[in-house]
Hints:
Elements: H1 9-18, H2 32-55, H3 60-65, H4 67-84
Amino acid sequence: MPKSKVRSKTEYTQAAxxxxxxxxxxxxxxxxxxxxxxxxxxxxGLLWLVVYYLVGDRWEWMANLGNWQNFAIGFGLMIIGLLxxxxxxx
Length: 90
């Protein structure tokens, strides 16, 4: 049976390294207002859910929204805050 050709390791690693392109990362820190809005969304969403659990049945307008709408509002606000963390540069 014929022996298969063995590829040298140096050729393989050099070809893989040649295909990489450097990516420039922004080194500018995020402005203070962006962080304030980001944490604001996270906290307001959390507060919405806590208030709904504690006094949601006593407030007519919140009780009229129902369970799913209150969960959607609370978690939606928190998801917006979490999505904003992807652009946060320390």
